[in-house]
Amino acid sequence: MMGESELLEEENELIPVAMQIILHAGDGRTKAQEAIKYAKERDFAAARQALKEAKENIVLAHRSQTKVIQNEAAGKSYQSCLLFTHAQDHLMTITSEVNMTRDLIDLFEIVIENK
Questions:
Q1: Coil, helix or strand at residue 13
Q2: For the chain, what are the domain ranges?
Q3: Closest C-alpha among 61, 28, 50, 58 to residue 105
Q4: How many other CB atoms sit within 10 Å of the CB of residue 93?
Q5: Annotation says 86 is catalytic
Q6: How large is the C-alpha radius of gyration of the chain?
Q7: 24, 62, 86, 90: which is the annotated catalytic residue?
Q8: How many CB atoms sit inside 10 A of residue 12's CB?
Q9: What confidence tens digit (pLDDT) does each residue in 31-86 have?
Q10: Regarding the domain delimited by 23-113, which CATH topology (the fold level of the hierarchy) does it fall under?
């Protein structure tokens, strides 16, 4: 038999949103890592394409988060959810990784051009 706290957690509206954020951000990280691999191989067109796809995934994750924030600003209340907090942290970390990936690709290109 399920306890009351388990039942409440199962019904939390933020869980599916958190999973969307985690999945999209994770896909963004995968694409950023792919971009680095291409840059190391000196395929900068493929690196930039993978980076573009990474950013698109970050945008999708951010949109999911933004809907919740806008709803709260409009007066909707949500039950606290540790998974949602984790998802937001996950998104912020991976957003930084994608931004650093952009800078690394730029540096790879500069170094290779100056050899």
A1: coil
A2: 23-113
A3: 50
A4: 12
A5: yes
A6: 18
A7: 86
A8: 17
A9: 999 999 999 999 999 999 999 999 999 999 999 999 999 999 999 999 999 999 99
A10: Methane Monooxygenase Hydroxylase; Chain G, domain 1 (1.20.58)
